[in-house]
């Protein structure tokens, strides 16, 4: 049983030096009711705007709702699976990440589209971290409901969602989520996913990384 009390440091313990924002970023389940300033929210999407993308296609779009407009917030909340609605309803900002799956000029399939949405969202998350904001990204959404409610075109699809705000004391959460917010962060070592020579052969063994 986890007996730690809040606040608990969730900063990563990297094996090699990385930028501070990367180490500080984590995805809480608990959010306070403090609103996010419009200027901060604008900067988050500006950061997403400048992400790299294949052929500079920028295949991402975002649908955003805040608690300043409760009806719109509830509409977007309804696009999340029930398990995510339980905790995400506390966040002051919800976002759907939508991806265009075809290149705008040729109409051909864009195999990099989802990857590029990820890059844009990573930019957004790091900008948020720099502003003491937290972002919890979700794959648990209802794409068909999002398409119906927001008239998303046929060649695009709602792919992910984000809850954005200021993290709250984990004691405000249901027991299972409380434990998740207090649990230490863990990652598999690079030796398990950075290969050289052949699949499964660690790049460290080849002397390319440590």
Could you walk me through the main structural features you see in this protein, from its secondary elements to its overall organization?
This protein is an alpha+beta fold. It has one domain (20-183): NADH Oxidase, CATH 3.40.109.10. Helices cover 31% and strands 14% of the residues. It has 7 helices and 4 strands; from the N terminus they run H-H-E-H-H-E-H-E-H-E-H. It has helices spanning 20-24, 38-49, 70-77, 82-88, 113-130, 143-150, 175-182; strands at 60-66, 93-100, 134-138, 156-165. A 4-stranded antiparallel beta sheet has the order 1-2-4-3, sandwiched between helices. Helix 2 runs antiparallel to helix 5. The chain is globular. Residues 1-7 have low confidence and may be disordered.
List keywords for this structure.
4-stranded antiparallel beta sheet, 7 helices, disordered N terminus, 210 residues, alpha+beta, globular, NADH Oxidase
CATH homologous superfamily?
NADH Oxidase
What's the total helix number? 7
**Class derived from helix and strand content:** alpha+beta
Catalogue the unreliable spans.
1-7
Counted beta strands: 4
C-alpha termini separation: 34 Å
Assembly of the depicted chains = single chain
Q: Any idea how many domains?
A: 1
CATH architecture: 3-Layer(aba) Sandwich
* Strand order in the largest sheet: 1-2-4-3
- What letter string, H or E per element, gives the SSE order? HHEHHEHEHEH
Portion in beta strands: 5-15%
CATH class: Alpha Beta
Quick summary of this structure?
With 210 residues, the chain is α+β, with helices and mostly antiparallel strands. It is built from 7 helices and 4 strands.
């Amino acid at each position: 049983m986890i007996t730690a009390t809040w606040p608990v440091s969730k900063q990563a313990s990297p094996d090699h030096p990385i930028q501070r924002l990367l180490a500080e970023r984590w995805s809480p389940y608990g959010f306070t009711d403090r609103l996010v300033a419009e200027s901060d929210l604008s900067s988050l999407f500006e950061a997403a705007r400048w992400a790299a993308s294949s052929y500079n296609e920028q295949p991402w779009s975002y649908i955003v709702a805040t608690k300043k407009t409760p009806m719109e917030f509830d509409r977007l909340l309804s696009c999340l699976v029930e398990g995510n609605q339980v905790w995400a309803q506390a966040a002051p900002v919800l976002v759907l990440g939508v991806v265009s799956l075809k290149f705008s000029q040729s109409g051909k399939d864009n195999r990099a589209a989802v990857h590029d949405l990820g890059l844009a969202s990573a930019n957004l998350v790091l900008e948020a971290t720099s502003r003491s904001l937290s972002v919890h990204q979700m794959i648990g959404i209802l794409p068909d409901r999002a398409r119906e409610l927001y008239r998303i075109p046929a060649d695009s699809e709602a792919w992910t969602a984000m809850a954005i705000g200021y993290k709250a004391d984990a004691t405000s959460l249901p027991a299972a989520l409380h434990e998740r917010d207090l649990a230490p962060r863990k990652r598999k070592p690079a030796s398990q996913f950075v290969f050289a020579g052949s699949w499964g052969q660690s790049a460290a063994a080849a002397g390319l990384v440590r």
